[in-house]
Q: What sequence folds into this?
């Protein structure tokens, strides 16, 4: 008896798709897991495989039409429904027996951020054979925005990890598989097995190795389990498509997938007409945060006319004030560094010069001013440069800012910043002086209009009001501004106000009251 094949779930939130291409015709015989159709969702092109071996009796949609999820896609006459046996006997051999036991499920990588289609597997927190609990962290993955932890959806035992550490995993693609308790259907159909074994091979492709490795996800999974390189298998299907039966052929040789990459040749460099070996010691792919930073910096310098303004600030009085406060606050669990003072003073100066807290629209036709001061701070983390920002600094005390600085710095260095902590920044501070260096030309964190780099703190000789040489704590700061929005006079006056708050802490405290 013919059965309808219902279009399965093919992605979170997807309810329909376009029929791009039928890979079979009505009357064609198909094998289990053979690709039947290509469909296009709003995210990707997906191949739909057959669940049975049998004959296609009807195609419900024409090429270009819209197919609905959970609606009939095609009709198939399975092999085990055409065996020459009495009705009662067929029922006994073909009816599924439902029992309770372990079933294997695939965990699909979910949406982990707006616009993110792939991520790098940084660390597996489990191994094959491990027992897992619902909500237990399974792995750490790195997007171009943050490090994200992927939890288990239910209890089970890990049976396979589909992506190695350092590999790239696709959103909505299998990340790992696991065994769990559930209902399984056991079908006893020896007649169908005999027919399947004797079925003639159709659409034979006598070409060489299948370089494109055309196969359904199920076939690819079997190939991984058998340690077979699909590009070395001659597919018997149309255009060299590989079926399960092709993997079981005696001629198939197990070739680990990794061996393909190991045969890569070493690049050479032409020097004066001679070919000289370019001895590459190692190759590191640019992914995740580093790739995002590379794109962001190129975009910033190629679209924003930068100019730099430098100044020196005498922090002697502020350092003395902090020295008298930090021990008392330490007892309360507050880590009082210099950064909270720089951030709070910046917010106070922005109140007088709001253009420093503005952003141009993408077409540069409007300038948007923000009432909230979301001040970012660049953090040198183990996964690359991260710029979390402290929200609504204009409403926070020095202690509030200090607590946020500690929280964000610790999270960034551990690679566990939430994406919200890096969104909606309005201006940025980069503390290069923590590592060394006095002057810099920082690149603006687009679409912001300004950034300041703090140099290292130095004890230098300076003249006091009486003309005496005294030792002072001096820091150089370097501003970069968007010259479409800010001119030199504006940033100089703004920096002078910011500097006055830092050099005279009492004026800062009065401005905060």
A:
């Amino acid at each position: 008896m013919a059965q309808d094949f219902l279009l399965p779930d093919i992605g979170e939130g997807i309810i329909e798709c376009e029929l791009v291409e039928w890979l079979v015709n009505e009357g064609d015989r198909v094998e289990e897991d053979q690709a039947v159709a290509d469909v296009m969702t709003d995210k990707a092109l997906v191949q739909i495989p057959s669940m049975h071996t049998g004959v296609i009796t009807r195609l419900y949609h024409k090429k270009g039409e819209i197919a609905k999820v959970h609606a009939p896609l095609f009709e198939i006459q399975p092999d085990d429904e055409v065996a020459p046996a009495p009705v009662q006997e067929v029922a006994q051999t073909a009816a599924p027996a439902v029992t309770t036991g372990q079933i294997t499920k695939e965990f699909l990588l979910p949406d982990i951020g707006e616009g993110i289609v792939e991520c790098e597997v940084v660390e597996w927190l489990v191994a094959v054979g491990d027992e897992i609990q619902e909500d237990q962290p399974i792995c750490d993955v790195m997007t171009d925005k943050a490090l994200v932890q992927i939890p288990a959806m239910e209890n089970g035992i890990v049976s396979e990890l589909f992506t190695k550490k350092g590999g790239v995993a696709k959103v909505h693609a299998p990340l790992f598989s696991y065994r769990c308790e559930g209902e399984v259907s056991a079908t006893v159909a020896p007649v169908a097995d005999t027919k399947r074994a004797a079925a003639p091979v159709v659409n034979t492709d006598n070409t060489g190795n299948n370089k494109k490795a055309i196969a359904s996800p199920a076939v690819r999974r079997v190939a991984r389990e058998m340690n077979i390189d699909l590009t070395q298998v001659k597919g018997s299907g149309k255009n060299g498509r590989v079926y399960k039966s092709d993997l079981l052929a005696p001629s198939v040789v197990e070739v680990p997938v990794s061996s393909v990459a190991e045969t890569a040749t070493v690049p050479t460099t032409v020097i004066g007409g001679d070919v000289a070996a370019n001895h590459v010691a190692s190759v590191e792919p640019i992914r995740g945060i580093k790739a995002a930073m590379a794109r962001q910096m190129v975009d910033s310098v190629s679209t924003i006319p930068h100019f730099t303004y430098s100044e020196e600030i005498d922090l002697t009085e502020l350092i003395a004030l902090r020295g008298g406060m930090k021990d008392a606050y330490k007892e309360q669990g507050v880590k009082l560094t210099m950064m909270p003072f720089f951030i709070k003073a910046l917010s106070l100066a922005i109140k007088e010069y709001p253009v420093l807290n503005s952003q141009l629209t993408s077409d540069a036709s409007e300038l948007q001013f923000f009432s909230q001061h979301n001040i970012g701070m660049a953090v040198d983390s183990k996964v690359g440069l991260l710029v979390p920002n402290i929200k609504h600094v204009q409403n926070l005390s020095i202690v509030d800012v200090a607590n946020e600085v500690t929280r964000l710095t610790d999270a960034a260095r551990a690679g566990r910043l939430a994406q919200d902590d890096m969104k909606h920044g309005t201006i940025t501070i980069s503390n290069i002086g923590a590592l060394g260096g006095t002057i810099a030309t920082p690149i603006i964190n687009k679409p912001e209009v300004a950034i300041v780099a703090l140099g290292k703190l130095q004890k230098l000789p300076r003249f006091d009001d009486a003309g005496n040489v005294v030792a002072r704590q001096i820091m150089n700061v370097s501003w970069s501004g968007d010259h479409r929005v800010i001119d030199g006079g504006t940033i100089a006056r703004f920096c002078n106000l910011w500097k006055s708050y830092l050099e005279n802490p009492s004026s800062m405290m009065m401005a905060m009251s």
Observations:
- The radius of gyration is 32 Å.
- Residues 203 and 239 are 8 Å apart (CA to CA).
- The domain at 97-186 is CATH 2.40.50.100 (OB fold (Dihydrolipoamide Acetyltransferase, E2P)).
